[in-house]
Amino acid sequence: MLLLAMLAGVGLGRLLAGSTLAPGPMLAVAVAVSLLLCMPVAYVLTRPLARLLRALAGAVISFRDGDFSFSIASNRRDEFGDLVRAHNELGRVLRAERQSLFQRELLLHTVIQNAPTAVVLTNARGHVVHANLAARHLMNDGHRLEGQTLEALLQAMPETLQEAVRARREGLFALELQGQEEVFHLATRSFRLHGQRHQLYLIRHMTREISRQEVASWKKVIRVISHERNNSLAPISSLAHSGRMLAARGDVGRLDEVLATIGERAQHLGEFIRGYAAFAKLPLPRREAIPWQALAMRLSVQYAFRHGCELADDAVIQADPAQLEQALINLLKNAHESGSAAADVELAVGESARDWWIEVRDRGPGMSSQVIASALVPFYSTKRSGTGLGLALAREIVEAHGGRLSLANRADGGLGVRLTLPKSPEGDAPPLAT
């Protein structure tokens, strides 16, 4: 058809050539007539391509809206055909990815819904947007929580649960359920979801786990105390018998040595028992202003160390003086007993906007990951004569102050034990939105 239109244009040109019109106008008339004749032909030829482009544009819009079900049929063998095939392959991949994502979301939803830990998610306005079955039973007698404000739900909850959730204070708390005291653990995290701030609360029922741990701890305490008692009482009994035999023979010259050894073993046993008593009867901390330089001076009398201070000379730390000093003495003692040279033991201190941090560093052999995981557990020790209470007591003191204690191997060898103490006793958790 295009060829016919061109021939018609040529014929018209020859007809005009025999006319009396000037060459310029004649050429213009011939071109105009040729274009008019070619336009229908061009429309017919480009209509399939236009339909294809419209289909591609519509499919792209569908992809943007999350609908990946569209595909385009075409048997073209040119570049447009390659484009159509690439589009169809993209749709297939996106459909497969969406189906896989749906399956993963379904699995995650099933796991969360049936998890024994109560899971509550609130938005920036404090409304519950998701709660699993455990949360429904804990907070609303099994009924749905979505759409209600967490503050309104807390009104009917025990006071200890209200206080823990409002303060977003992670840790253990007790509730009285059905006439019995039950222990729960609260963990909370803030994050952004779909551009908005959300708060996640995880409340785990810990009574059975704590009971098992208590039994295991008591068994370990009994084993440790029995072992230490036998280590002290057996030689005391043997030495007492030897002393009687020496006295019966009149050999009093060796009695001083026997009695000194008995006294040494008795003193060791007494110190061991006092250490357990101190751990069991640790009182609540009484915070007061502690001049750091004065505290560092007292510590240096007990154990030598290099002082790395990032605080001002007149800086003070709010803590219980006796407890903080005892915790640091325990850490410095461990650093000196690690095999590190005394000159390599360092006591560093600094602060952030919300916390003070104190770190005891040594150049000993460090700890394996297994030992680090167990080092803070009471009665755990890798030393033959160790009680396993030094680090445990330090952690108990720090956590009573609302802080935390962590251990990490140093890059160039040795161990660092860091105490982090909050400047605010209750933390800075904002109130719940209503």
UniProtKB/TrEMBL annotation:
Xref: Gene3D superfamilies: 1.10.287.130, HAMP domain in histidine kinase (1.10.8.500), Histidine kinase-like ATPase, C-terminal domain (3.30.565.10), PAS domain (3.30.450.20)
Enzyme nomenclature, EC number: 2.7.13.3
Boundaries of every Histidine kinase domain copy: 224-425
ATP-binding among keywords: yes
Top enzyme class: transferase
InterPro entries the record matches: BphY/WalK/GraS-like (IPR050351), HAMP_dom (IPR003660), HATPase_C_sf (IPR036890), HATPase_dom (IPR003594), His_kinase_dom (IPR005467), PAS-like_dom_sf (IPR035965), Sig_transdc_His_kin-like_C (IPR004358)
The keyword Nucleotide-binding is assigned to this record: yes
Alphabetical UniProt keywords: ATP-binding, Kinase, Membrane, Nucleotide-binding, Phosphoprotein, Transferase, Transmembrane, Transmembrane helix, Two-component regulatory system
Biological process annotations from GO: osmosensory signaling via phosphorelay pathway
Major site of localization recorded for this protein: membrane
Subcellular location(s) per record: Membrane
Species name: Pseudofulvimonas gallinarii
Recorded GO CC terms: membrane
Name of the protein in its database record: histidine kinase
Molecular function (Gene Ontology), one example: protein histidine kinase activity
Domain HAMP: 47-99
